[in-house]
Amino acid sequence: MPDSRVPRLRRFLVCEPRHFAVQYSINPWMHPDTPVDVDLARAQWQALIRAYRDHGHTVETVEPVAELPDMVFAANCALVLGGRVLGSLFHAPERRPESTAYDAWFVGAGYEVHRAESVCEGEGDLVPAGRFVLAGTGFRTTREAHRQAQELFGVPVISLQLVDPRFYHLDTALFVLDDGEDGNIAYYPEAFTPGSRAVLARLYPDAVIATREDALAFGLNSVSDGRHVFVASRAKELADQLDRQGYVPVPLDLSEFQKAGGGIKCCTQELRP
Ligand code: ARG
């Protein structure tokens, strides 16, 4: 284990939660009758952005659109790799219009934008991990979209089958600790079928395995820069494990966003050069 892990500075795209709310239910966390504390949500989101900037990362913003309460979950809008964008085709009709706003941002920023041909929810399910893209399916992104991503980016895509509706996106059950050639991940095995679990065990024999409690606290919806891990503050045991592995946990509370089934990573789209 290296005693000094080196961060790689990132560029992120985020969307202010100006219109954030739970107005419909498209995952088991969402109960439209539970109120969201809008001021608290805004403060939690601002603390996340501040933490990114304090650690040297660049944060860009896309203008939020009224009537798109889930647009704050920027991770779902695309996968950006090597300057190319695979724009999402959302599963839920309620979220489909988000693509127009995000695609316009990418085009304006000079990216080559490709459109997903079947349901595909960006970094929610497509997680670049060094030599591979790890790809979730079962609830949202289709295997057809995995194939399209592999063709578009020319990176081997490893399909992983999700089984628990509370972990409906891959980024709720797994995150990349460092994305170098011999990178490592953290994950919650019970979110996957036995076959997919075996694939992960084979690829990442030294992975950090999260407890059920930490997974349910959205501990795996984390962002790592290779050294600092921006992680849900309630995922205590996970933070201890990361600390023992030489990472520096940066605990953040995004409780209001969990009411929509989201967390730190969901709010963060990485713009990979
Ligand atoms: N309410 C949103 C949905 O169900 C939450 C998305 C969370 N994003 C994520 N990357 N897991 O689509």
Automatic annotation (TrEMBL):
GO terms for molecular function: dimethylargininase activity. The keyword Acetylation does not apply. Keywords: Hydrolase. Its EC number is 3.5.3.18. It comes from the Bacteria. InterPro entries: DDAH-like. Gene3D superfamilies: L-arginine/glycine Amidinotransferase, Chain A. Signal peptide: none annotated. It is an enzyme of class 3 (hydrolase). Belongs to the DDAH family. PANTHER family: DIMETHYLARGININASE, DIMETHYLARGININE DIMETHYLAMINOHYDROLASE. This is Dimethylargininase. It comes from Streptomyces heilongjiangensis. The lineage of its organism: Bacteria, Bacillati, Actinomycetota, Actinomycetes, Kitasatosporales. The gene is ddaH.
